Structure formats: structure tokens, C-alpha cells
Amino acid sequence: MPAPVQPPIEPMLARLEPSIPEGDGWLYEPKWDGFRAVVFASDGDVYIQSRDLKPLNRYFPELARGLVEALPAPIVLDGEVVIMTDHGLDFDALQMRIHPAESRVRKLAAETPASFVAFDLLAHGADDLRSTLFAERRARLERALARVGAPAYLTPATRDRDLAQDWFERFEGAGLDGVVAKRLDGTYQPGVRAMIKVKHLRTVDCVVGGFRWNKGEEGRSVGSLLLGLYDDAGVLHHVGHTSSFKAAEKRALVETLAPYRTDDEDVGFGQGRTPGGPSRWTQGRDMSWQRLRPELVCEVTFDYLQGDRFRHAATFRRWRPDKPPRACTFDQIATTVPFELEQVFRAG
Description:
- By secondary structure, the protein is of the alpha+beta class.
- It has helices at residues 61-70, 91-97, 102-111, 134-144, 161-170, 247-257, 339-347, and strands spanning 13-16, 26-32, 35-42, 45-50, 75-82, 84-85, 88-89, 115-124, 127-128, 152-154, 176-183, 193-199, 202-213, 222-230, 236-242, 290-302, 305-306, 309-310, 315-319.
- 38% of the residues are buried.
């Protein structure tokens, strides 16, 4: 029997808020950081749709095959495609899947198989549930996936705000970068920011190991500072960048950075991970960079840590002339895989 809801469907979206909402009528979930997907399963077939309404089956063939066997079809689920490792979720491994070579995709599918974490039920059996209140959708989702096996999983959820706050504080760094809050009396609203997401915002002191010029203003304006942290062996690794400067500040940085410029490839990022060059993700943009002696320290804020790198650009807060560069270590942002994440995947 075909599912009563057919693709494409715009996923319901979330708006960013600074804190977890209080009061009755909320359900809280961990915020998964993978590829948002809507899964349509029926008649021995699965179609995985991306957030921008494109098919994902080609890039996750092992997931499509596994979901055919795992899901109680016909069913339509909203959720997240993730790759689980011993160190948490690996978004970099997900990105590597979007590759034009089928042979490369097959190789990665065997090495790092993907999973699907469901957090909403849009249809089941002959029932279109999009106009059903979320409290009932969640109850039916739990019943539908009660006996489900890998590669399908059910996201944890709670009505306890204190527990949600605890998740928020402990889950960072393991692929769960915040909390999502949903109204129990809400319907499924495609394309509407009807949910609330609360993301981390943390500060860290970093060494400035290089910079990139502002495109079109080479030699006159700095585009971004390249940030680094030291590992336990005293090796400096590139972890991200910050470009949150006004035009006048970018011009002033040219003079600020001039005394620290060097061509010595053994200095700074010479031994550890260096800023990346051109790739399929940079789409031909100029990724060349200028090397600096690792003597400048700045404090930045960041919202999410992916492994040992900032997922997004950091925000510059201030220079830290009082901070010795060697004190800028990964210990500032050490994280562990939360017990709940292990339990979700162990259960499958």
C-alpha cells in the first residue's frame, strides 16, 4: 500500500531562541546535527528526501536498503541522517558522501554506514497525520518504532525542562548541538518555523596562526583570521576562522598583523592540521592563506564544535595579550560522548 503522503514535502522548521522555553505544553528533544531528511517508505521501497526537496538515496544506498527492512511501511518520517562513531556523530563523514563518483559513495557506505533518527511521524498506514496534534503524533511514533532496528532510531524526548537543560549542557561535541522545543498542541506545518531551537554559544582563546586577504582587496584588507589550538604534544592545529570585523577594522588588521608575518613553513600551522585548500566544498574559491608566527591570541565565541574544529565561523570578541599562546589548548573545549547518545544507538 502506498503512503498517504507523497514527496516532495517541505520540512517544518525551527526559529532560534536564546533559551529553552518554560511552561506547560512543550516537548524537548536533543538537536541532532546531520542531514535533515523526510523518509517515505511503502511497498518495499524507500525514498529519502533532503531539506531542499532533493533525493538522497544515491548518496546513502546502505541506509535506503536498511530502512526498507526496518520500517513498518507504509510510513512517512521526519528526522535526521547521521553517522555514529565512537566519538559521537561525524558530520564530516556525512559531507564526504555528497560525491559524484558512485564507487566512492559505495566505499564510504561500507566504511561508515549512516543511520536515520526519527523525531516526527507525518503518516502511518492509511492516515495522513500532518493535521494531528504533535502529542498524538509522538505517541504514535513511539508505538510505530517500538520494535524497530538499525539503521532506524527514535530520538529521546522529555517534557522535563530541567532534563532538557541538562542535555543542552552535556551533549555538545557529540553531534548534539542544542535542544529543540515543540508544542504538544501543534500541527505539522511544512516550511513554517513552528519549532524552537536553542544552540550553544561558548568562548575559547585561540592562537592566530594565519589570515586570508579580503577578496579583491589583497594587501589592503584582511578577510579572516585563521585560528589554532595546541594538542597535548604541543602541536598547533587549525580549528576554524573568524571574519566578524567591520570594513575599517579589516583594513587596520593589515598593519596589526604585519610584524608577525612569516614564510617559514615550520612555524605555526607547519606541523599540525593546516587551513584547507580548494575542494569540492569551496567551489573554486581562492583558499590561499598567509602564515603568521603563533604569538597573537584572541578570544572568540562559537556555536558548535564538530570533532576538534569549529563547524561555523567563530565571532571575534577581543585580543588577549595577557594569554600565552601555549595556553591555548584543546582542553578548553574537551567533550565526551553523552550516555544517552550511546543508549540510543546501542538499543538498535
